Amino acid sequence: MIFYSKKNKKKRNPNHKQKELFVSYANLPDTEKTKDRKAVLVACRLFNELYLYYWFNTSSIHCTERLSYVYDITHELIRILPKTNEHLQLIRYFEDHYGVDRWSEVLQINRDVKMSLPQKQVLIIKKLCKQHGIDVTTLNNDLDELIKKSDYISKQHKKRIQRSIKDRISHHLTDYLTYQEIVEFLNEQHKRSPSSKNFTSLFSIGNTYENRSIWTIRIGKPSARRNILMDCGIHAREFISPATCLYIIDKLIDEVNNRKPSILSIFNIYIIPLLNPDGYEYAQTERRMWRKNRSPNSYYYGSNPNCMGVDLNRNFGYHWMENGASPNPCSETYAGPKPDSELETQSLQKFIKQSSQRWDAYLTFHSYGQYWIYPWGFALHMPDDYIELKRKAQIGSEALKRVNGTSYKIGSAANLLYESAGGSDDWAKGVGQIKYVYTVELRPSDDMNDAHAHFAFMLPSTFIEPVGQETYVGVKEFLRSLITSRRQKSSPKNSKEN
């Protein structure tokens, strides 16, 4: 390896000072000769990324009040169309080295990719794209205005609801709540169920770095022997995700109180409405587009706020750091200093592994894109039971579509979106041994022709009810299909005629 040194500096062309600060991989030993090559490559990559990041990215987003956000430097939203594998690599390079925030989950050839970046970097990115033959379109030259538009729509909706609805719980289903409001909502729902029959229980599965509890609610008859786990809000900025979990909780409690024949006689449903409360609160009060948790990093140099936190959905220790994650603490997809390093990750893993329950299914809700996806994310190959996974996803997504006409795409994460390791879904299936595992990417669609695609992570609160309605119906139909499958497997086979 060749590192920058004063001795080398005197001999080199002064016009190439920026290149001199990079690490050369040319003299690294072959993989067969050393087991440390991968670690060395990661270290070299981290050195380069940290330098480039601090060279180009010093911007941040601040909050003046709850859900009222401003950039200290204007950000733009651009769309680029990769046409080759080289173009895909260049997009990853932008993410790692220029602090570009890729909004699109899909990273494939001939699929539009949306990215936000500080306005001062737009010319650099456009120049590099032009050099490589990539088309670039500016979708929004001031993202703060889009955030304010979403905020305004949400506030107007809230005023209308306050005038027409007095019931506090119903009101809670029409707005993006704070962490404390979510805790209050869960307590209200727990009290709303028949306490004498033990239909619900409310408990914490662990605490975060900032000492917030990760609350979980169980809903179902005590006699139910099968168990479902759902979580929401692993990524802080995806506000529609926790709101959807709260909607599902409310409707399940309604079923308990109305004494309707229900899936709750078969399943105990455990719901974690907010897996990343620290990040969520930070997104609510400081930086609307924050994605990670809020744990401090040893590489938190200077005052760059982007270098805090870990992407929890890259931190799970199943094929960790193999694909789609970054060793750079300042990256949106930073996978953490080691597998399973984060308290939130550990809490979910411990709950899955140490619970006495046998888990029938695990669903994790994200946004955005309108996808119902199954493992694997770390590689393109499919799990052995992928046909069954796909069939069940089709049942749920078709039921969801019948409510509001919302279409979801179905497939494995790596094939439908892109390869990314360290996700909770891959871990739940690969280590947790849960058969039916899905990531559900909620509205809006990432199709540019969709009327609401431009809102992306900033979907106004007017969408909470329709998204909740359709998702609840889709999930219920999916769960009913699991009941049917179990009955079919347990029924005696028809005898053959002689």
Explain this structure.
With 498 residues, the chain is of the alpha/beta class. The chain folds into 2 domains: 75-141, 2-Layer Sandwich (Alpha-Beta Plaits); 159-489, Aminopeptidase (3-Layer(aba) Sandwich). The protein is 39% helix and 17% strand. The protein is built from 15 helices and 14 strands. The strands form 3 sheets. It has an 8-stranded mixed β-sheet, sandwiched between helices. Strands 4-5-3-6 form a 4-stranded antiparallel β-sheet. A two-stranded antiparallel sheet has the order 1-2. Helix 8 (179-192) packs parallel to helix 9 and helix 12 crosses helix 15. The longest helix has 27 residues, at 464-490.
Q: Provide the CATH architecture of the largest domain.
A: 3-Layer(aba) Sandwich
**What's the order of the H and E elements?**
HHHEEEHEEHEHHHEEEHEHHEEHEHHEH
Number of helices: 15
Shape assignment: globular
Q: Mean pLDDT score, rounded?
A: 82
In helices, the fraction of residues equals 25-40%
Overall structural class, as computed from helix and strand content, comes to alpha/beta
Might you state the CATH topology name of the largest domain? Aminopeptidase
